[in-house]
């Protein structure tokens, strides 16, 4: 077996002024290493730029998906450099980088993902669905990068396409071709069998491979202690005299025909499924589970013996022993299992007024300090002070999760109770990252054209409106300390998160109105333009003072006279009126009055609703909006997260935790034809 200390990536930080260097050399997600390691590493460097140097022929699809999301979410500039070969899922996470470079003699390969499956009909159908979804997700990332139709990308994946640097540049998958590198030096750690697993690896690439020598059996034992991590070579162009760490694989016999290969795959899937089921039943931690999964000679019975040995070793050590590293604490803590945790959770939620207290809950009205003591059970007797008790509770896992879940529940409850104003007024846009994004609206969809007798349809092209949108991050931090537990400061859980949710919603409304009042369009002009020379405009001024009927009709006319980019009437209808408290009541009365004593009211029902808001205090009149079926004002959110969200900045420590309320949001007027303003004469 390869050493479990093997790393497929290394991160080197040379200071804030230099980009973080990340080498991804080897199998993605290999051995006991998960993408979470890379995610944590990126989080630790904050907004610092990052440079990824990639030499990999693929690996786990799901680990690659996680890496893609982590790199895309990174707020610093990201540059990827292919150190010789990037294949399969290794090319997918490259697409998340701001810039991709390839030496002119390097290779990049894309193909359809594959997976093994074992089980009955439902299990196989589930696996097939996962495979199809993964294929579509990967193809969409390639298509987004290169700008080609999705069917062209899928065709290239189906053929297992190997791109040279120039071909990748022409296809649109990379941004820059750089000087050639010494491929024999780059690829000497890549086994020939790995490339032969692909359908059609280029012969020129195979010729550069050097055989990987077998490691004598007596040298495969792991050395005592933690070995120093081996840093991958620098960029291949400057690494001709270096020797990167070699990937070593066991000499395992391989099936020689398809039937034998299928049977071997079935047996391996069956073995892994059985071990995973045992680990789930006995709450085995990932370290022991992955050790058994990676050992191809570990059978189901062997796994059962290892799990029993781990539990037995702990029991034999007596109650004073600590939790074994490879078995979850909840498995062996017989006096304090999930029932206790669930009851504590319910009691705390009840104190926060977001849940009904269960009738048989023994922890009714317990203080936070009481709950901390209950959560750690027998460990509490070893504590010499309340400070030590709370510190142990923070590290116990259960108590920290109870606090975190309670804060989240309070935030969800506040979301149900209170809705921000923008939800009634704006459309929303899901944005994938924090880059400036071109918006494409379909307010001016091309007219339908006559279809000739031979059934020929003419193509229409939808182009961007020229409007751009970019996310910004807003947030606050809540410190949850040992003092808060000892002082039973329940408001930190029951009230403060509500206030932050309210603050987040106020921010969203503020951004919405700022976009209307002070925003600009792509033509560098303001949102509201007065009509000129019989041309359309969405700003009407000098309405006779207090003539609400005339004001409504002016706004109505602004919508009724709008035209498409081709000059055809759009016949828009107004839906909402926004006004300050001085005008809202009068506007509503006029809209709902069919006639005056001697004449019909033409403004009757011209708008559906009046919304009163103090944010209109400086408008001596009203602002009108069309329906949401016409894109007028857009609120943008990261990945569709339209509410503030909660995260812990550095996790729980003996001192407590810091909770961050974060809101990734922006607002933009995208079409001034859907919004209009009318103001009374000041005199």
TrEMBL record:
Protein name: ATP-dependent Clp protease proteolytic subunit
Organism in which the protein naturally occurs: Veronia pacifica
Keywords, alphabetical: Cytoplasm, Hydrolase, Protease, Serine protease
UniProt cross-references to InterPro entries, sorted A to Z: ClpP, ClpP/crotonase-like_dom_sf, ClpP/TepA
Positions of the UniProt region annotated as Disordered: 208-255, 314-333
Biased segments, Acidic residues type: 215-229
One GO location term (cellular component): endopeptidase Clp complex
Listed Polar residues bias regions: 240-255, 318-327
Gene Ontology BP terms: protein quality control for misfolded or incompletely synthesized proteins
One Pfam family this sequence matches: Phage_capsid_4
Family according to the record: Belongs to the peptidase S14 family.
GO MF annotation terms: ATP-dependent peptidase activity; ATPase binding; serine-type endopeptidase activity
PANTHER family associated with the record: ATP-DEPENDENT CLP PROTEASE PROTEOLYTIC SUBUNIT
CDD domains according to UniProt: S14_ClpP_1
Gene3D superfamilies: 2-enoyl-CoA Hydratase, Chain A, domain 1
